[in-house]
Design a protein that fits this description.
This protein has two helices and ten strands, in the order ααββββββββββ. It is mainly beta. The protein has one domain: Calycin beta-barrel core domain (Lipocalin), CATH 2.40.128. A ten-stranded antiparallel sheet has the order 6-5-4-3-2-1-10-9-8-7.
Length: about 180
């Protein structure tokens, strides 16, 4: 017999459904994501070795709101440090946890990265973290910062640190809305 005790809570199914409906209503943070929907040109700068100059590349990104305005779907393509690149991401705001949650996957690997973090104080962006085992650097903590500068410009930055090590800027990307 298992020593784990099962907790059984009796709740009216109608009350339960009302709770889920209420927590599932898109709010202000979803409106922030909605501002990021559209067709974008990207300009990226990558920092590799501290002894090498940064590398720039360009690309495009299509972003759209899905599932009734609850999530932002991102499809990007371009070049990353000399290689063709495609990537797909999803970002949402979890009303229950009070955090932005994102997934990212791309053609340069087979991992699915999960980021989460709080809205920034000014209400025009969010900062997230992801812990993962990098195949070259080992266990890493990545920090991403996404800031909507205006209706036509988004700034994205990525930082990385080996666990317990010093954080370094790895990438910055500027999204400019296509006209």
């Amino acid at each position: 017999m298992s020593t784990a005790k099962k907790l059984k809570i009796e709740i009216d199914p109608k009350v339960e459904m009302e709770i889920y409906k209420k927590i599932g209503i898109p709010g202000a943070q979803h409106k922030l994501l909605e501002r990021m929907a559209g067709s974008w040109k990207t300009l990226s700068t990558f920092w590799g070795s501290p002894t090498e100059p940064p590398v720039e590349s360009s690309g495009v990104c299509e972003q759209k709101m899905i599932l009734g305005g609850r999530f932002l779907q991102q499809e990007c393509s371009g070049e990353m440090i000399g290689s063709a690149f495609t990537g797909i991401g999803f970002t949402g705001y979890d009303n229950h946890s009070g955090k932005f949650v994102s997934t990212w996957m791309d053609s340069l690997g087979t991992a699915i990265y999960v980021f989460e973090g709080k809205p920034d104080a000014g209400g025009s962006g969010f900062t997230q973290k992801c812990s993962a085992d990098d195949p070259v650097r080992g266990p890493m903590v990545w920090r991403s910062v996404c800031a909507i500068k205006d209706d036509d410009t988004i700034a994205f930055e990525m930082y990385g640190a080996p666990r317990g090590g010093r954080e370094e800027k790895m990438m910055e990307m500027t999204y400019t809305r296509k006209r």
